Structure formats: C-alpha cells, structure tokens
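Schema walk-through. Below, the input block comes first and the output block second. Nothing else is stored per chain. Lengths vary across the set, and this one has 381 residues.
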Amino acid sequence: MIKKSLLIIATILLTTIYSFGQNITNSPYTIFGVGEIDRNGFNNSKAMGGLATGLRKSNQINYMNPAAMSAQDTMSFILDIGINGIFKDLKSSTESSEFNDFAFNHLAISFPVTRWWFAGIGVTPYSKIGYDIQQVGDFAPNDTVQMHYDYYGNGGINQLFISNSFKIFDNLSVGFNFNYLFGSLEQYNMVFSDISIFSTVIADEVAIKKVTFDFGAQYYNTIQDKYFYNVGVTYSNSASFNSEKKHSVLNTTYNWSEMTIVDYLKSNSRIVDTITSSIDSKYNVEIPDRYSFGFTTGIENKLIVGFDYSYQDWSKVETINSNDTYDVDQYYNFGIEYIPNKYSLRNYFKRINYRACAYLNNSYLKLNGEQIKNYGITFGL
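--- output ---
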C-alpha cells in the first residue's frame, strides 16, 4: 500500500515538473540576471519572511535547511502542495500598472526511512523572470515619426530537490539536498515605427540545467523541558550552468496591442522572417556560493522567535547582463510565531499559529551605482 502511494505521488511530482512553465511574477528588475530569486521556502517560512535556517518543526518540510527534516515524527508522512497568488500595483512618477494572477507553486513530500534517516523530494521555483516594458520615443532623424519599443521577458529556473536528513546525536542533525536546476530564460527586444507594418524582434532564449548541492546542520536543545533553542547553518555551492543560448533577429508584423510577443511567435498564421540565427552552446551563467545562519528560541508548543542572515557575493560572477550590475546580496529577517493554546478543544482560534516577520534585503542588483533594497513585513496563520 505504501509503495503504491509513493508511486502515485512520484507520478504527480514528475507531471508537476512539466507544468512549471507558468510564471506569475511581474517586476522590471527581472530584466537583469537570473531574475527574482525565491528563497522563502514553503508556507510556514513564507509567513515569517523566509525564516528557515534555524527553524525546526515536526510538521514542516523545510528544504531550505535539510537538517531540519529530521524533526519529523518517525510515524508520519507529509505532503505539501502550494498555490501562489499575486496582486501587484507598479508605480512610477508618471505611470502605473496593475497585475494579478494565480499559479501552482510547489509540491513536496517527506517521510522517515529509519529512526535516524529522513528523506524528502519536491519541486519548487528557484527564480522567476516576468516583465513587459513599453516605451515610445521620437525617431532622431525625423521627429514626426514615433518609434515603439517593447522589452518582454518570461521564464525562470525550477528546482527539483532530493533531501536527506540524519540525526547524528540526540541534539545534532545534518542534511544535504541534491538539486537539479532547470529552466529557460526568455528575453525579447522589439522595435517598430508608426509608419511601418513591420517590426524587428531580437529574441534570446537561454536553456539551463545544472546539479547543485545544499548542506545544512542544526544543533537543538531544551531548558527545563519548556524552553528551547535551535542554531542552524547552511551552505549552497556555486554553479556555472551548462547553458545554451539561442539568438535570433526576426522581421515580423507584430504590434504590442495585439498579444504578447511569445504568443505571437507561436502563432503559425503570423508573418515571421528570420534575418539571422545562432546558437551558443557554451553560454556562461553563474550563481555564487550562499551562506546562511539562523537562530530560533521560545516556549515549546507556544512561541517561536527567530533570526536569519544570509550572504551571497554576486559582484564577481559573470552571468546574463553582467555589466557591473551585481553586488553582495544580504538578507536579514526577524520572525515570530505564536500559538495561544495548541491543545484547546473548544476554541479553534486558540489553536491557530499566528506568524509575522520584518525583513531587509540588500539585493544582488546594482543599478546606476545604487544597490536595490527590499524591505517589508509579512503576516500569516
């Protein structure tokens, strides 16, 4: 029976991998590098701003620190499915744009192999690209002619992970992830004038695949059987992707008012002439090493307070659009979880896990000499 269940779940998992083409991010910053990196883990961690390195819970698949999976009960089996929704309002000093969408986010399972060995497998986004930037400007030789520019990007990197977690001693666990990163990054630059029916499209598609590893450790203990503390560390190795870049210059009748350029190129009824086309089978895309440290403490079954810090130096890597646009990525977050009464029988709201976080991210992007910073607060239950 167990073998049949695992086979069904594995089939769903493999089918899910092929459905990861849908992307719901929308950010002009994803025109650079490998896009918007997703490092927030699953729902418990997301609600606490990505708190994961020192987080250790028996009912959570924490692939961000594989050592944490050994907290799972030896008689349990966890299936985690996530759907992601986004509602975004982008604004500049003169323009605004709204975006919203829903899509499948992740699927993962974890289970005990022995009393000291736990395993998990899942698929989740690693990074996302999604932007559509349109501009209109005068044609310099003739200011009566307007030029239209459209910069469109789509795709991202997906992560298939296989986790192993081991209890070394009563208070120490270690683990590692075997990751297969795969996906495609698509970028299209289009230009046409208002006096011509033809458009010129420069299309770049980078297909990437690479095996990487994450290593993690956690030390945990209790004080007076009521208070606890966990200390965690992780390391993710750098990766130079086996990449293939397809570069094409196309002549089309595309106009941005009709549909996206991707849908246009997939339509056989449209006029598309290839002017030039080339394939670079050794195109360089790099991701640097990443280090993280985390600490959580609190009251058993009542309160968790934690802090995470991660460090990743992008300033020396060579990758997509690498023209002094990268810097050291540092992520700080402080998260909290509170349960009024985990074992309350009469009041459901007392059994809810209430979560919140404040975070600051000095991102890996540096534009016009200024590093892009992200900060905010999150809530969840």
